[in-house]
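Sharing a chain and its predicted structure for anyone who wants a worked example. Both blocks are below, sequence first, tokens second.
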Amino acid sequence: MDSDTLQVFQSELTCSICMNCFLDPVTIDCGHSFCRPCLSLCWEEGQTPRSCPECRGISERPDFKTNIVLKRLASLARQARADHDQSSEEQICVTHQEAKGLFCEADQTLLCGSCSEGPKHAAHSHSPIHRAAEESREKLVKRMRSLWKLRAKMQISLNQEANKTQSFENYVALRKIMITVQYQRIPLLLHEDEKLHLEALEQEAKEICQQLKESVFTMTQQGESLKEMYRELTGMCHKLDMDLLQSLGSVPSCRSESEQLHVPQPVVPELSVWPIPGLIDWLRQFQVYIVLNNEEVTHHLPVLEDLRCLLAGPDGPGVDDTPPRSKYFLAWGAESFTSGQHYWEVDVAGCCNWAIGLCNDSWARESDMTLDSKGIFLLLCIKENSQYSLFTSFPLLPQYVKKPLGQVGMFLDYDGGILSFIDVANSSLICSLLYCSFSSPLKPFLCSGYP
């Protein structure tokens, strides 16, 4: 192939982003083709929507399969370039004065034919330089794909950790209001206890926020390290065949890569239990005894499955669409509340997933019982893997406190628009739903799941 033809051939197989011969080429919706690493790095910067770097056409799909034909042609273009370069400036073996055309896989060295037959290399495996270089590129591309998946996983964790930081800060501000309201409503409680409680909350929240910020910083640094390693491997793949083979020794091992770039465990923010002296005794003066009816056992409960899906989210781990193996016990109180102050207790010991609180009659009669319904005021506990998370609805908000292990008390002030959940064993406030608009008869609601 003459130089002019070679130049045209190579120009048609050149990525317009890196201006190198295609590496793991992909063809996007508009028809333009790019190296997968170049496109990944370009789109990783957060373009919304994703567009073609050449024509700016919008691409609907996030990922594409390798264009096999372009991949083969790119390999031929590299070989033609190598043959052309070699003809003008051969690498000569000093000992035998022959061109080095073979690669010894055992010693990672370039050899001439005579060296490959000598006693030092005769027992080793040898390949033509271009074939060995293409095989090495393929191995590096596979590692790069794994690195990019790890990068994507780390970015998801980073986004979740950053969102968690903001969510926790907002929660702490709301919890201070919950505590203040709780102390103000109970005349037996001392102002000094309230002050100590809020100071302890402030100090502990400050420490947790610092842990979250350090976690975000660590994930950011590791993400940048991974991206830099990805760029280095891309640059190595674009090297000439001989240069690539001679630089393989500088590629870090898969094990050291894995150790260096493991995804750190996220911080689990959880505030300590702070007992409120005399709280349970004061609440029990309003105690009522709830008679449950409409009991049933089901293998599926939308309100809890909704929450599991929301926890996973678009960036979270996949949720199995099949019905959960847990059995759910559902019950509604026979009595409805339309006014006044009422307190009752529910035992959630041993339950993996549960929801307790109040709902209106219409929600109790609904067959779907979804979280976006109005007229529900619940505390929900969900177990994902080995971790428990608490939420309140409506609206859905995380509660960064320890899961109660036994009795949960509920105090309803219908006219005041407050529903509080109490950890009875610790005489501590789990959370309060404040400024609620109770406008219809409310029934106590209980759902508990057992594995």
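Comments welcome. The chain has three domains: 1-89, 131-260, 279-313+322-450.
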